[in-house]
């Protein structure tokens, strides 16, 4: 499933928040760059990509972690 949101956080801070939030779960960071994070586990994955146009835009793709992604987006929105 894919989710999108806009936040007032900087792209760097949005990725830090994603790393903090998803890092508390049993999902390991598989890939990391200035624009994206990829978390993977045996249960699925979460990929967070940020761009900056008018505010910081997040594109999150997941398989297996939909409730957690929705909660994360509510927290940073």
CATH T-level fold name: TATA-Binding Protein
The CATH superfamily turns out to be: Kinase associated domain 1, KA1
CATH level-1 class: Alpha Beta
Q: Can you name the CATH architecture?
A: 2-Layer Sandwich
Which consecutive residue ranges, at least 5 long each, have pLDDT under 50?
none
Look at the structure and give the mean pLDDT: 94
What report would you give on this structure?
There is one protein chain. This protein has helices at residues 11-23, 66-76, and strands at 2-7, 28-32, 36-41, 44-53, 55-63. Strand 2 and strand 3 form a beta hairpin. The chain has a 5-stranded antiparallel sheet with strand order 1-5-4-3-2, covered by helices on one side. It has a single domain, classed as 2-Layer Sandwich (TATA-Binding Protein), CATH 3.30.310. The chain is α+β, with helices and mostly antiparallel strands. The chain is built from 2 helices and 5 strands, in the order E-H-E-E-E-E-H.
Notable traits:
five-stranded antiparallel sheet
Task: Summarize this entry quickly.
The protein has 77 residues and is of the alpha+beta class. It has helices at residues 11-23, 66-76, and strands at residues 2-7, 28-32, 36-41, 44-53, 55-63.
Task: Walk me through the topology.
Blueprint: E1 2-7, H1 11-23, E2 28-32, E3 36-41, E4 44-53, E5 55-63, H2 66-76
Antiparallel strand pairs: 1-5, 2-3, 3-4, 4-5
């Amino acid at each position: 499933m894919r989710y999108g949101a806009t936040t007032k956080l900087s792209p760097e801070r949005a990725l830090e928040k994603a790393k903090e939030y998803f890092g508390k779960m049993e999902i390991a960071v598989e890939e990391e760059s200035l624009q994206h994070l990829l978390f993977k586990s045996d249960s699925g994955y979460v990929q967070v990509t940020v761009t900056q146009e008018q505010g910081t835009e997040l594109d999150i793709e997941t398989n297996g972690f939909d409730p957690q992604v929705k909660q994360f987006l509510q927290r940073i929105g």
